[in-house]
Amino acid sequence: MKQTRKILVIDSSVMVKWINSQNEDYLEEADQILHDARSEKVELIAPELAKYEIGNALLYKNMSLPTSKMSLGTIYEIPLTFCVLDQEGASETMEIAKENKITYYDASFVQLTKEKKATLVTANPKHHRQFEGVKVIDLKDYR
């Protein structure tokens, strides 16, 4: 019987560590996730909007344009699947956002985690709480 890989939803606070380590903590843990994905121990997914959050985060890293573009390009080389939100998922994301008083952006990571029966890995303190039916791991605790 083939063993299924554990699915991890990676939020932008973790992804940014893969593309620019400037002023970032828990780089070893973030690198371990990448190692686990490359050795097919885990499958990495994220909402499509994470690409835009990463691009925005890079704007504030005080890097040159060529360096920013090169760093952004790295996110497309990582074994990470970006998931598009359909109408049903969008509706559920709105429910999660309203019920938990979080942004729609943050709720999209929670919704994807719930939908895929995955584990959310985050370095974002706003996500370090319990959401019904969602397992959350703080990046610093990733082994």
Structure description:
Strands 3-2-1-4-5 form a 5-stranded parallel β-sheet, sandwiched between helices. The longest helix is centred in the middle third of the chain and has 14 residues, at 87-100. It has helices at residues 12-19, 27-38, 50-59, 65-74, 87-100, 104-115, and strands spanning 6-10, 42-47, 80-83, 119-122, 135-138. It has one domain (6-141): 5'-nuclease (Rossmann fold). The model has no long low-confidence stretch (mean pLDDT 92). Helix 1 packs across helix 3 (50-59). 29% of the residues are buried. With 143 residues, the chain is of the alpha/beta class.
Write the layout of secondary structure elements.
Elements: E1 6-10, H1 12-19, H2 27-38, E2 42-47, H3 50-59, H4 65-74, E3 80-83, H5 87-100, H6 104-115, E4 119-122, E5 135-138
Parallel strand pairs: 1-2, 1-4, 2-3, 4-5
Helix pairs in contact: 1-2, 1-3, 5-6
Strand order of the largest sheet: 3-2-1-4-5
Largest pleated sheet: 5 strands, parallel
- In terms of per-residue confidence, which ranges show pLDDT below 50 for 5 or more consecutive residues? none
Number of domains: 1
Counted beta strands: 5
Q: How would you state the average pLDDT, rounded?
A: 92
Q: Given this structure, which CATH class is correct?
A: Alpha Beta
- Helix-strand string: EHHEHHEHHEE
The termini sit apart by 25 Å
Could you name the CATH topology? Rossmann fold
> What is the number of helices?
6
- CATH architecture name: 3-Layer(aba) Sandwich
Shape: globular
Radius of gyration: 15 Å
What is the fourth-level CATH superfamily? Answer: 5'-nuclease
Helix share, percent: 40-55%
**Percent of residues in β-strands:** 15-25%
Overall structural class, as computed from helix and strand content, comes to alpha/beta
